[in-house]
Design a protein that fits this description.
Helices cover about 15% and strands about 35% of the residues. The chain has two helices and 13 strands. It starts with a strand and ends in a 5-residue tail after the last strand. The protein binds N-(carboxycarbonyl)-S-(naphthalen-2-ylmethyl)-L-cysteine (MD3) and fe (iii) ion. Fe (iii) ion binds near residues 121, 123 and 177.
Protein backbone atom coordinates (compact mmCIF):
# COMPACT_ATOMS: atom_id res chain seq x y z
CA UNK A 1 0.00 0.00 0.00
CA UNK A 2 1.20 3.50 -0.80
CA UNK A 3 0.77 6.45 1.55
CA UNK A 4 -1.97 9.01 1.85
CA UNK A 5 -2.27 11.86 -0.60
CA UNK A 6 -4.04 14.92 0.85
CA UNK A 7 -5.96 16.23 -2.13
CA UNK A 8 -7.52 19.12 -0.23
CA UNK A 9 -7.66 19.96 3.47
CA UNK A 10 -9.55 17.07 5.09
CA UNK A 11 -9.73 14.98 1.88
CA UNK A 12 -7.13 12.21 1.88
CA UNK A 13 -6.78 9.47 -0.73
CA UNK A 14 -5.01 6.15 -0.10
CA UNK A 15 -4.37 4.68 -3.56
CA UNK A 16 -4.34 0.88 -3.48
CA UNK A 17 -5.25 0.76 0.22
CA UNK A 18 -6.61 -2.77 -0.27
CA UNK A 19 -4.46 -5.22 -2.19
CA UNK A 20 -6.07 -7.67 -4.60
CA UNK A 21 -6.63 -10.33 -1.94
CA UNK A 22 -8.21 -7.74 0.37
CA UNK A 23 -10.45 -6.52 -2.44
CA UNK A 24 -11.56 -10.07 -3.23
CA UNK A 25 -12.32 -10.82 0.41
CA UNK A 26 -14.32 -7.61 0.79
CA UNK A 27 -16.13 -8.22 -2.50
CA UNK A 28 -17.24 -11.63 -1.24
CA UNK A 29 -18.39 -10.25 2.12
CA UNK A 30 -20.38 -7.52 0.39
CA UNK A 31 -21.89 -10.20 -1.87
CA UNK A 32 -23.21 -11.92 1.24
CA UNK A 33 -24.59 -8.61 2.57
CA UNK A 34 -26.39 -8.03 -0.75
CA UNK A 35 -27.89 -11.51 -0.68
CA UNK A 36 -29.49 -10.64 2.68
CA UNK A 37 -30.25 -6.98 1.88
CA UNK A 38 -31.02 -6.84 -1.85
CA UNK A 39 -30.10 -3.68 -3.79
CA UNK A 40 -32.96 -1.18 -4.08
CA UNK A 41 -33.40 1.78 -6.42
CA UNK A 42 -33.54 4.99 -4.39
CA UNK A 43 -35.90 7.75 -5.54
CA UNK A 44 -35.57 11.51 -5.32
CA UNK A 45 -37.59 13.25 -2.63
CA UNK A 46 -40.84 14.84 -3.92
CA UNK A 47 -40.43 13.84 -7.58
CA UNK A 48 -39.82 10.13 -7.09
CA UNK A 49 -37.32 10.18 -9.96
CA UNK A 50 -35.17 7.03 -9.69
CA UNK A 51 -31.43 7.19 -9.08
CA UNK A 52 -29.20 5.48 -11.66
CA UNK A 53 -27.21 4.01 -8.77
CA UNK A 54 -28.64 1.07 -6.82
CA UNK A 55 -28.03 0.90 -3.08
CA UNK A 56 -28.02 -1.24 0.02
CA UNK A 57 -26.52 -0.87 3.50
CA UNK A 58 -24.99 -2.74 6.38
CA UNK A 59 -24.59 -1.70 9.99
CA UNK A 60 -27.12 -0.54 12.56
CA UNK A 61 -28.46 2.18 10.27
CA UNK A 62 -28.85 2.55 6.52
CA UNK A 63 -29.35 5.55 4.25
CA UNK A 64 -32.51 5.50 2.14
CA UNK A 65 -34.26 7.97 -0.16
CA UNK A 66 -37.81 8.09 -1.48
CA UNK A 67 -40.69 10.54 -1.96
CA UNK A 68 -40.69 11.15 1.81
CA UNK A 69 -37.09 12.36 1.84
CA UNK A 70 -33.56 11.30 2.67
CA UNK A 71 -33.02 9.55 6.00
CA UNK A 72 -31.24 6.87 7.99
CA UNK A 73 -33.33 3.97 9.24
CA UNK A 74 -32.62 0.61 10.93
CA UNK A 75 -34.45 -1.51 8.34
CA UNK A 76 -34.42 -2.24 4.60
CA UNK A 77 -37.08 -0.14 2.80
CA UNK A 78 -38.49 -3.12 0.87
CA UNK A 79 -37.95 -6.22 3.00
CA UNK A 80 -38.39 -4.48 6.36
CA UNK A 81 -35.52 -6.56 7.75
CA UNK A 82 -32.74 -5.08 9.88
CA UNK A 83 -29.60 -4.28 7.88
CA UNK A 84 -26.93 -7.02 8.04
CA UNK A 85 -24.06 -6.33 10.42
CA UNK A 86 -21.06 -4.42 9.18
CA UNK A 87 -18.28 -6.88 8.35
CA UNK A 88 -15.36 -6.63 10.81
CA UNK A 89 -13.04 -6.02 7.84
CA UNK A 90 -14.84 -2.70 7.27
CA UNK A 91 -14.80 -1.80 10.96
CA UNK A 92 -11.04 -2.39 10.90
CA UNK A 93 -10.59 0.03 7.99
CA UNK A 94 -12.54 2.66 9.93
CA UNK A 95 -10.42 2.09 13.04
CA UNK A 96 -7.25 2.49 10.99
CA UNK A 97 -8.28 5.58 9.01
CA UNK A 98 -10.57 7.35 11.51
CA UNK A 99 -8.92 6.41 14.82
CA UNK A 100 -10.31 9.39 16.74
CA UNK A 101 -13.95 8.94 15.70
CA UNK A 102 -16.62 6.88 17.45
CA UNK A 103 -17.53 3.62 15.65
CA UNK A 104 -19.37 3.74 12.32
CA UNK A 105 -23.11 3.10 12.44
CA UNK A 106 -23.86 2.86 8.73
CA UNK A 107 -22.15 1.61 5.61
CA UNK A 108 -23.90 2.72 2.44
CA UNK A 109 -23.27 0.43 -0.53
CA UNK A 110 -23.53 2.17 -3.92
CA UNK A 111 -23.73 -0.08 -7.00
CA UNK A 112 -22.83 1.50 -10.33
CA UNK A 113 -23.52 -0.06 -13.71
CA UNK A 114 -21.64 1.13 -16.79
CA UNK A 115 -23.76 4.26 -17.24
CA UNK A 116 -24.65 5.13 -13.65
CA UNK A 117 -23.70 8.54 -12.26
CA UNK A 118 -24.15 10.50 -9.06
CA UNK A 119 -24.95 14.19 -9.27
CA UNK A 120 -23.06 16.73 -7.16
CA UNK A 121 -24.40 16.73 -3.60
CA UNK A 122 -23.46 17.16 0.04
CA UNK A 123 -23.71 14.42 2.65
CA UNK A 124 -25.62 16.17 5.41
CA UNK A 125 -28.19 13.72 6.70
CA UNK A 126 -25.98 12.78 9.64
CA UNK A 127 -26.29 14.46 13.06
CA UNK A 128 -22.54 14.30 13.59
CA UNK A 129 -20.33 16.08 11.06
CA UNK A 130 -17.29 15.89 13.34
CA UNK A 131 -16.59 12.29 12.31
CA UNK A 132 -15.14 11.73 8.83
CA UNK A 133 -16.69 9.59 6.10
CA UNK A 134 -14.49 6.71 4.98
CA UNK A 135 -14.93 5.43 1.41
CA UNK A 136 -13.67 2.27 -0.32
CA UNK A 137 -14.00 1.55 -4.03
CA UNK A 138 -14.20 -1.88 -5.70
CA UNK A 139 -14.41 -2.81 -9.38
CA UNK A 140 -14.41 -0.43 -12.33
CA UNK A 141 -12.74 2.95 -11.91
CA UNK A 142 -14.80 6.13 -11.53
CA UNK A 143 -14.26 9.78 -12.34
CA UNK A 144 -14.94 11.49 -9.02
CA UNK A 145 -15.51 15.25 -8.68
CA UNK A 146 -15.20 17.36 -5.54
CA UNK A 147 -15.72 21.06 -4.90
CA UNK A 148 -16.10 23.28 -1.87
CA UNK A 149 -18.82 23.69 0.73
CA UNK A 150 -20.95 25.87 -1.56
CA UNK A 151 -22.57 24.82 -4.81
CA UNK A 152 -21.23 26.39 -7.99
CA UNK A 153 -17.63 26.92 -6.92
CA UNK A 154 -14.59 25.38 -8.61
CA UNK A 155 -14.29 21.58 -8.63
CA UNK A 156 -11.48 19.11 -9.16
CA UNK A 157 -11.76 15.65 -10.68
CA UNK A 158 -9.78 12.52 -10.06
CA UNK A 159 -10.02 8.85 -10.81
CA UNK A 160 -10.89 6.37 -8.06
CA UNK A 161 -9.61 2.84 -8.68
CA UNK A 162 -10.51 -0.51 -7.16
CA UNK A 163 -8.92 -0.78 -3.73
CA UNK A 164 -8.61 2.96 -3.14
CA UNK A 165 -9.71 4.43 0.19
CA UNK A 166 -10.72 8.06 0.74
CA UNK A 167 -11.35 9.89 4.01
CA UNK A 168 -13.46 13.05 4.10
CA UNK A 169 -13.20 15.00 7.29
CA UNK A 170 -12.74 18.46 8.69
CA UNK A 171 -13.28 21.16 6.08
CA UNK A 172 -13.96 18.53 3.37
CA UNK A 173 -16.79 16.86 5.30
CA UNK A 174 -19.44 19.12 3.76
CA UNK A 175 -17.84 19.48 0.33
CA UNK A 176 -20.01 19.02 -2.77
CA UNK A 177 -19.03 15.85 -4.60
CA UNK A 178 -20.29 13.41 -7.22
CA UNK A 179 -19.40 10.72 -9.72
CA UNK A 180 -19.34 11.83 -13.37
CA UNK A 181 -18.70 8.49 -15.00
CA UNK A 182 -17.61 4.89 -14.68
CA UNK A 183 -14.86 3.37 -16.84
CA UNK A 184 -16.41 0.05 -17.92
CA UNK A 185 -13.98 -2.82 -18.25
CA UNK A 186 -11.24 -1.13 -16.23
CA UNK A 187 -11.20 -3.81 -13.48
CA UNK A 188 -11.53 -7.58 -13.41
CA UNK A 189 -12.65 -7.71 -9.76
CA UNK A 190 -16.40 -7.96 -10.37
CA UNK A 191 -17.42 -10.72 -12.80
CA UNK A 192 -20.46 -8.70 -13.93
CA UNK A 193 -18.46 -5.48 -14.23
CA UNK A 194 -19.51 -2.20 -12.66
CA UNK A 195 -18.41 -0.50 -9.48
CA UNK A 196 -19.15 -0.81 -5.77
CA UNK A 197 -18.52 2.14 -3.47
CA UNK A 198 -18.73 1.70 0.29
CA UNK A 199 -19.07 4.71 2.59
CA UNK A 200 -18.86 4.22 6.33
CA UNK A 201 -20.54 6.88 8.40
CA UNK A 202 -21.10 7.97 11.98
CA UNK A 203 -24.73 9.07 12.01
CA UNK A 204 -25.61 9.98 15.62
CA UNK A 205 -23.59 12.16 17.92
CA UNK A 206 -20.81 10.07 19.42
C1 LIG B 1 -16.44 14.15 -0.42
N1 LIG B 1 -20.52 8.29 -2.94
O1 LIG B 1 -22.43 7.74 -1.12
S1 LIG B 1 -17.44 8.25 -2.27
C2 LIG B 1 -22.17 8.94 -1.32
O2 LIG B 1 -18.24 7.06 -5.24
C3 LIG B 1 -21.18 9.30 -2.36
O3 LIG B 1 -20.22 6.38 -4.69
C4 LIG B 1 -19.58 8.53 -3.99
O4 LIG B 1 -21.00 10.43 -2.62
C5 LIG B 1 -19.30 7.22 -4.69
O5 LIG B 1 -22.71 9.87 -0.71
C6 LIG B 1 -18.34 9.17 -3.48
C7 LIG B 1 -16.31 9.45 -1.66
C8 LIG B 1 -16.93 10.54 -0.87
C9 LIG B 1 -17.90 10.32 0.08
C10 LIG B 1 -18.38 11.35 0.87
C11 LIG B 1 -17.90 12.64 0.71
C12 LIG B 1 -16.48 11.82 -1.04
C13 LIG B 1 -16.95 12.87 -0.27
C14 LIG B 1 -18.33 13.70 1.54
C15 LIG B 1 -17.78 14.94 1.37
C16 LIG B 1 -16.85 15.18 0.39
FE1 LIG C 1 -21.92 11.64 -1.04
Amino acid sequence: MSGAVEIAPGLSCYPGYLDRAGQEALRDEIGAVLAAAPPFVPRMPRTGRPFSVRMSNCGELGWVSDEQGYRYQPTHPETGAPWPPMPSRLQAVWAALAPDAPPPEACLINLYGATARMALHQDRDEEDFSAPIVSLSLGDAALFRVGGATRGGPTRSFRLESGDAVTLGGPARLAFHGVDRIYPGSSTLLAEGGRINLTMRRVTKG
